[in-house]
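Why do we bother with a discrete structure alphabet at all? Because it lets us treat a fold like text: something you can write down, compare, and reason about line by line. To make this less abstract, here is a complete entry for PA domain-containing protein. Read it the way you would read a sentence in a foreign language you are learning: slowly, and without expecting to understand everything at once.
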Amino acid sequence: FYRAFWGDLLPRRGRPVKLVEPLNGCSTPENLAELKDAIAVVSRGDCSFIDKANNVSLAGPGALLYLNSDNQLFRVSAGHITNSKEDPNENTGIEFGVGLVTHEATGVLKAALDAQEEVFGQLVPVQCKGAAECAPILPEEKEVVPYVDSGYLAGDGLDEIEFLTSTFGMPLPTQALPLLQPSNPQGCEALSAPEGGDVSDFAGAWVLVARGGCPFGDKAKHAQDAGARGIVIMDNGDAPLARFATNREDVFIPGLMVTKAAGEGLIDWLGTVAEAKVEVVPSPGAAQAWLDLAALEWPEEKAQINLFKKRQLKEHGDSPDRQAWIKAKAKEVLAAAAA
């Protein structure tokens, strides 16, 4: 989010997140009581930013977030105050923090609120030294993990499997959930029941599908329509692992990408357990390691290839999946050098 040019400081602690009713915030909220001390959320449009804030202020919220009408971010000006000639960004009388989030957040917030009775959020200010280098400021804020790009899947009898996250979807679930594979393995149409099960089994589960055949967003939407909590996509090639995106605005569940070898291991594991459940363990930072591997220029001489492989295992081989990829890549380069 971007902070507005006006309003008070952001709250320091987590608070309930509540959608204002009606969502445009252009009249006195119908749910005033539940907005007290909460992070209130309104949509953009139909009236000015400051009019919305004045209406929501009747509830005494902890903060106010505007849902933008597109996926751009900017610092909100108070703009024109209806029937007033005041300087818009001075003396607004708004005594809570105000910010703007992207339109994409609309679906994510609604899906999160539909999925559970209470959603808590924390507005963590970050200080940016450049377009791509931002970090929390205060010590207690640094303990919050605002952005998860990677982690690993854990389960009984399952070797840890590294994943990279999608750039879309709700926060990752923290509890262990069933992992199921549909009978149509690519998930490019409405999901077929898993072997020996029913389509209703997908509700609240992770769905494992193979990459290819259709866009990532279509796979995720089919899983979402079946009630899945998230989608795990097994890569279909030998390229380094990468995060993935969609331009669909109707997909709210999160996605994970695992290597082809790891996905095949998951399928084998599914056949050995009576009830397959996986837990998602966030471990941010692996996306950069995979990007570094993708940018490598391997030498062509055999002796240099082996030394290069050892160096990469030392620098980037702190996960079994990256170790396997580096070794497989070295084998491929050696074969090409010998040809």
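What the structure line is telling us, in plain words: Residues 6 and 97 are 8 Å apart (CA to CA). The radius of gyration is 24 Å.
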